[in-house]
Amino acid sequence: MIQREMEAMLQAIIRGSRTLITRSPNMAGSWKCAGFVLAAVQFCSIATAQMTEESSRLAGYYGFGPLEVMKLEDRSKFLHSADVNHDGLIDLLAVDNSHNRIDLLLQRKETTPHAVASREVNKVQQSSLFEHVKLPVDHEILSLTTGDFDKDGRTDIAYLGAPDQLVILYQPEKGTWNRKFEQRVADMSTASWSLAAGDLNQDDRTDLVVLGERETSLFLQLASGQMAPVQKLLNTSEKMGLVQISDLNGDGLADLVYLAGEGNNRKLGVRFGRGNKTLGAEFLFDLDRPRSVTLANIDAQPGNEIVTIDSRNGRIRLSKIEMEARKAGELPDRLVQFGFGPGGTAKDRSVAIGDVDQDGLTDILVSDGAASRVLLFRQDPRFGLDLGTGWPSLKGADQLRLANVDGVPGLEMIVQSVAEKSLGVTSFRGDRIPFPELISIDTEPVALEMADLDGDGQVELLYLEASKSGRDYSSKLRALTHNGTKFVPFKFGDQESYTVPLKGRAEGMLAGDLTGNNRSELLVFQGAGKSPIVLSFGDQGVVTEINSTGPLGPGMAGAVGTSIAEFGNAKGLLISQDNLVRFVTYDQAKGWQIVMQYTAPESNARLMGGTTIELDGQPGPEVVLYDGGLSKLRVYRQAPEGLVAWKEIDMGDFPFLQFKTGDFNGDHQQDLLVLGTDRMAVLYSGGVSPKIAELGQFEMTQEKTYPADLIAGDFNDDGWTDLAIIDTRSQYLQLVQYRPSTGLEAALSFRVFEQKSFDDDEGGSGEPREGIAADVTGDGRTDLILLAKDRVLIYPQDTVESPEPARTTQKTPAVPSSTGAQAQPAKAR
User: Fold this and answer.
1) How many domains in the chain?
2) Where is this chain compositionally biased, Basic and acidic residues type (predicted)?
3) What is the pTM of this model?
4) According to the model, what pLDDT value does residue 32 have?
């Protein structure tokens, strides 16, 4: 008797679990959770809707049919949707690393009635919608995506396997998945969501991108269906994750999107697709510490929007990127950034600018001693600087200069290697930079500079040699000149070298017209806090030391904080130190004089370097300072009363070294180059720049919620993309609608499951942990799929009346997984 009653009760619970989730627009009250009990967890199919009538006016226009359930494993992850058996129906995939397999839930064309419930209380019949197929793999899977990776029209599976493997499983025409591509990816990131698929080079073929610790790997698909040799992008951050491929600026080109940095410094990194079938440099956007990032077309306009969850308050923010043509005198809100790749410190990072490839445009050369190479960033007349190409150079190459030393058109690159105790010279030839030819010297160079020492118009090569006897250093300045065939020694008058009275090892050298006499002077730095040695060169290169007392005396900033500048038609030195900056000139009678001084008002200001550059189109250059204490670029205009603050640009955790100026996008305006230890940033003074525009905000009204993730999809088949907020504390699912006229507005809210909780942790249980949107019932409507505990929960979309006529324009699917584009949840981990 008792057993029959238990069976009847279980049947009633299961019938209850298949009740429709919907309500009419004028219904009031709330629902109670009914469903089935699994291991002390009650999964709900009729949910509690705790909303006022005003806030729930849209609830009746959203509905879901009977809940479908598939049991997997507690550790199942990376839920995706794709047609993995080419039958035209969308299937589900999930990774089960505990059994080294990928679970394929293949959608059936015809479903069978549910079987009679099991006598076991916690046993629930698997959904008849799917056939469960187990695909074994050989690795622990770290990330997964799908796409047609051999252009045969079938959707394949790509994954990252521990510790360093990229694997593509090609979908067979029939039979088993036994054909695959496998390649080791050095320095591959082991973080989740480090793999994405999409068309990166506009050839209608699906490519792959793999995030690395210091480099990002691109695998571009060839016309043959094979993958081309890997291409590398140099990262600007060591902490990157959640990579996605999406068109954010509405130009129809795929952009590479990811999170960069960590903690409070986490930002959204974007490399926009360019018309020359390449990706551009990196823009970083501050998204207020995002907990989650979802990209989808929400406003029905070209380009996908950015939907984030603010980790500070759980607020949902809807934003989009707009490309804005700046007016004359306007500065961008952010700089574009270029990475240098693995390793690198201030000691082996040097920069030189000039027309390296003789195309009339300014290029940038950067030394990369850690990799024994130089990086060439060539300028394209349409798209500005490229992403950089590395060319082998001297071991530990730490300093370089560009100059025309032989009188033949074109610039030579002079490179120094302290590690190899050598100097080398090379030039751009045949679309490449050959390995440097060694310059014959008998001593050890420690500093390098170029200058016209005797005023004959030909540039000489200066280098400082150092030797040590006990605790004493001996430093001698030597020079070489080119006779049209080779470098030969240059004499300072009748001397082959000049002994520089340094008290230690030199920090660097800086040459230029410091005194306004149209001749080159030379500063030899001894390090912060010590006076530099200032040398001038007369006829035949005779050396004279200039007194460096006063503002150049003890306590002066070192090489990083000193630059040559013009201020008020005077030439001199711009010296940044602590919270002040000074412009210092030299007077033959009075010596070094302070012409201008500015003190930053903030107590935590730390001015590390400065330069002058024309930015606002008005007479007189602006002064740009790098404030390491506030992590900002500070731009000042000149005024009779001194410097007047004009603009500040946030730089995040940028590791500043020095400034350079030049025209880096061919618009005949000066741009600003900011060099760092592991990256550089460029402020373009003209052109188009991206900005973030906020479209709306939303907060969940239920108590004790923790919005953890977002799902984007059209959940009432009206042609507009909706949002589903996953709450992992009280296990609510909140549907939100967006319209340009009303913004983000609450629609339907229901509870996914209920369970006893003795933990009041803000983030709750972390369940449901993933979710996607896809049509997995074959009716043409987008369904809602969640991964919670060991269950895949499918909420089939039901037909309900829309509050407004459906859009007639073609939908932009939020999760176009069947095409191989991004099809993964957007949790920022």
Assistant:
1) 1
2) 767-776
3) 0.87
4) 40
